[in-house]
Design goal:
Layout (H helix, E strand, L loop, with lengths): L8 H4 L4 E6 L11 H18 L7 E4 L7 E3 L9 E2 L4 E4 L6 E6 L3 E7 L5 E6 L1 H5 L2 H13 L6 E5 L12 H11 L7 E3 L24 E7 L8
Parallel strand pairs: 2-4, 2-6, 3-5, 9-10
Antiparallel strand pairs: 1-11, 5-8, 6-11, 7-8, 7-9
C-alpha cells in the first residue's frame, strides 16, 4: 500500500502541504447507492481528515458531474460545503481549507503551486480528461492566484487502466500537463490500476457500480509559503 501512495511524495515535500489518498476501507458494505455508501464510509473519512490536522467542517467537496468546471473554495452559502456543478476545487492555500474529491476508477489530480501556495484538486475521468479539466484548473489558478505551470507539482492518483478499461486516463492527463509547461519531473503518476487492485481500491467498472469511493484530500496547515 505504501508504494501505491508514493505518488504524493513530491506534493508532501512542499512545506505546509497536507495530502492523502484514502483507499478501500475493509469491512464497509457497498451498494449501488452512492449516498448510502458514502455515509457508511464517513467515519473512516472523518478520521482521515483528522489525521491530516483538519476538522470535518474544513473539508470542501465538489458535486462531480463529469464536466470540466472548477470553483474556488471556500464558497459562501454552500450546503454541507459541497460545491454544485463542478469537478474541481481550488484554493489560495489559506490555512484551514481542505479540498476533497471522491473517485472509484477516475483519477484525482493534485495540483500544488510551490511558489504561491495555491492548491487544486480535480476529478478527471474519461469525460473530464477529454474536456481537459486539469488545464481549466491551471488556467483558473493562473487567473486567481498568479500560478505558473513551471511551479506546479502534479500528482495523478491510482485510476483504472487497460486492460480493465479501454482508455488509459493517467497518461493523457500527464500529456496535457506537460504540453502547457509543467516540468516532467513534477508530474507523477501512481501507475496503479484500480480495476486490477480492487482488493485495495474501489473500482466502479469491475464492481459493476456496487462500490465505494476513495477520498483524495489536500490542504495547507500553515501559511509559510514564498511570496509571489
Amino acid at each position: 500500500m505504501t508504494g501505491a501512495l508514493s505518488f504524493l511524495d513530491r506534493v508532501l515535500a512542499v512545506p505546509g502541504v497536507e495530502a492523502s489518498f484514502v483507499p478501500r476501507i475493509p469491512g464497509i458494505p457497498v451498494s449501488g447507492d452512492k449516498g448510502v455508501t458514502l455515509r457508511l464510509l464517513e467515519p473512516a473519512h472523518r478520521n482521515a481528515v483528522a489525521r491530516r490536522g483538519f476538522e470535518w467542517d474544513d473539508l470542501w467537496r465538489a458535486e462531480q458531474v463529469h464536466g470540466n468546471a472548477v470553483a474556488v473554495a471556500p464558497a459562501g452559502g454552500v450546503e454541507e460545503r459541497i460545491v454544485a456543478g463542478v469537478d474541481g476545487l481550488l484554493t489560495s492555500g489559506r490555512q484551514g481549507v481542505l479540498l476533497g474529491i471522491y473517485v472509484a476508477d477516475c483519477a484525482a489530480v493534485y495540483l500544488c503551486d510551490r511558489r504561491t501556495g495555491a492548491l487544486g484538486l480535480v476529478h478527471s475521468g474519461k469525460n473530464g480528461t477529454e474536456q481537459a479539466i486539469v488545464l481549466r484548473a491551471l488556467e483558473r489558478m493562473a487567473a486567481e492566484f498568479g500560478s505558473q505551470a513551471g511551479d506546479i507539482e502534479a500528482a495523478i492518483s491510482p485510476c483504472i487502466r487497460p486492460p480493465c478499461y479501454e482508455v488509459d486516463i493517467a497518461p493523457r492527463i500527464a500529456e496535457q500537463l506537460l504540453a502547457v509547461g509543467v516540468p516532467p519531473e513534477q508530474v507523477v503518476m501512481s501507475g496503479v490500476c484500480t480495476g486490477q487492485n480492487a482488493g485495495e481500491f474501489y473500482s466502479y467498472r469491475v464492481e459493476r457500480g456496487k462500490t465505494g469511493r476513495m477520498l483524495a484530500l489536500m490542504g495547507r496547515r500553515t501559511e509559510n509559503v514564498e511570496s509571489s
